[in-house]
Amino acid sequence: MSKKAFKAESKRLLDMMINSIYTHKEIFLRELISNASDAMDKLYYKSLTENIGLSRGDFEINLTVDKDNRILTITDNGIGMTKDELENNLGVIAQSGSFKFKNENADTEKDDINVIGQFGVGFYSAFMVASNVTVETKAYGSDQAYKWYSEGVDGYTITEADKDSYGTRITLKIKENTEEEDYDEFLTEYKIKGIVKKYSDYIRYPIKMMVGHSHLKEGTEDEYETHYELETLNSMVPIWNKSKSELKDEDYNEFYKEKFFDYDDPIAHIHTKTEGTATYNALMYIPSKAPFDYYSKDYEKGLQLYSNGVLIMDKCADLLPDCFSFVKGLVDSADLSLNISREMLQHDRQLKIIAKSLERSIKNELTKMLRNDREKYEKFWKAFGLQIKFGVYNGFGEGKELLKDLLLFYSSFEKKYVTLEEYVSRMKEDQKFIYFASGETVDKIDNLPQTELVKDKGYEILYLTDSVDEFALQMMVDYGGKQFKSVAAGDLDLETPEEKEEMKTKTEESKDMFAFIKDSLGGRVKDVRLSKILKSHAVCLTSDGILSIEMEKVLSQMPSEHNAKAEKVLEINANHPIYETLKKLYETDKDKLKVYSDILYNQALLVEGMPIENPVDFSNKICSLMTE
Ligand code: ADP
């Protein structure tokens, strides 16, 4: 009988399991029970859809303990495995190939836990407590049973075995106690009962074990005898069918962590029971952190879908809108037929009604959090705010009604995140617009010349730091009837009538000079104007048309040959001494004015955080000024 080696990544994981410093070794039992339950789900589902004639009551999980021989067994009468399945399922972890170590040197405790947490490496956790593991299994409908045996990293063997009925029996040889670790406890009924109650109470099949009860021997006063009884250790009621009053946050959180492989508690749970046009129970969770692959293509959204307690789909994407794709959880509805195929499900009317109603529940929960626990909401926002903003932008603003009141932006007033509702509620009487400014960081935006005058007028500005922000606001057009306006829009209509008059005169007097400057910049700007938005700075860039300079920056990072460009306008501050200098040069030295124009344009680019076209030329021009 030849021994086969584990696939490389499985081997490393195993090694990690065996030498794990992971403190919750007891979770091995939860993992094995969960596998057993899945296997029974599969067979029950098959029975229902193919009329095999098995009923739910036919299924059970059995645990046995043999203290003397240090043996713990877990037996199920689920679907079992064929030889190939045995090889594929237990010889390699995550056949999909999606399993990758995040950290090549996953040797710290935290990494251990993360790997266990994120991938739910189920079966292998047996090696945390067992020195060898035997799996005897017979696939439903097959005549031959097989035995898989392994002592750990060395590899495993598969041989033919005798097993009467279908299903799987897992035999663990529990390790000897060491100075640091007590393994004996996994051979005590009391401890095992406790672990089952704690982690597997909701499993919908009975988990049975012979439990000893000692009592006084009849006719004696100090002699005890033990009699054994087969007990069902779990209550079997799925947590989502229990009433809310029965459940504590802790129960919800435990269930979440084991079911959805997260090491952290969720930030919120939503438990709803709905009757009416659609009848279903839903239990949903908002994770506290974005999974590492959340903002990548690999992430798959979806909720588990049950029909009357039978799992029919693991990740039903149609139940969740993209903007809430971070939600984990499950839906159990009697309205759905077991036989429904994925394709049919997509068009199922009932499913659509449920999805719509879940969307509302999620929004309500977030709104509640925003109102009642701002700190928590900001934590949520940090993890998933980007997704909400994409939700506003995607689908041509389809989601804006749903999402507009969930948005947060950093405020120049409050120096923290505020909602649009809060912004609008404190707008000044004469204020027409919701002002915003875009940039890489809050600090950089705060120093932008364009923000100065608006701030000076006492208006609040929203600081946009994510690339999607401005696109999302453009999609929204307005909030509460107030339009959004970029402080870099050039024409903010902030002047008093006197200032307007003065501006008119100056515009007239500088018309020719500005035309000259524009010419000398040779098409790099669409226009040169007197600025209405600058207060103390000399120059800045604004844009005409719908594409802002910030948006041009975002688009320029996307792989495309002809990226759209903003129509740039060079604005010059008439109240800055440079204005007089330019005027003088226009009369006396046009060549020098050309050099100055070029320098001013480049300065404006730098202030915007844009690259300048010819840094060497720019530097030379400055130097020649300095050595004049
Ligand atoms: P996971 O359960 O996350 O897929 P495991 O390593 O726990 O990962 O199990 C790997 C696979 O082995 C399972 O997906 C299942 O197909 C199979 N398996 C494990 N335990 C059983 C069992 N008791 N009965 C039938 N199949 C099983």
Notes on the structure:
The chain is 38% helix and 21% strand. By secondary structure, it is α+β, with helices and mostly antiparallel strands. The protein has an 8-stranded mixed sheet with strand order 5-4-3-6-2-1-7-8, with helices on one face. A 6-stranded mixed sheet has the order 15-14-17-16-19-18, sandwiched between helices. It has a 5-stranded mixed sheet with strand order 9-10-13-11-12, with helices on both faces. A hairpin with a 5-residue loop joins strand 9 and strand 10. Helix 2 crosses helix 5 and helix 8 packs across helix 9. It binds adenosine-5'-diphosphate.
Label the structural class. Answer: alpha+beta
| Rg measurement, Å | 34 Å
Widest sheet, order of strands: 5-4-3-6-2-1-7-8
Q: What is the CATH topology classification name of the largest domain?
A: Heat Shock Protein 90
State the helical fraction.
25-40%
Distance between the termini: 91 Å
Count the strands?
A: 22
Number of helices: 19
CATH homologous superfamily of the largest domain, by name?
Histidine kinase-like ATPase, C-terminal domain
Largest sheet: 8 strands, mixed
> How many domains would you count in the coordinates?
4
Shape: elongated
Detail the poorly predicted runs.
Answer: 93-120
CATH class of the largest domain: Alpha Beta
Q: Which ligands accompany this protein?
A: adenosine-5'-diphosphate
Q: Architecture of the largest domain, CATH level 2?
A: 2-Layer Sandwich
Mean pLDDT: 88
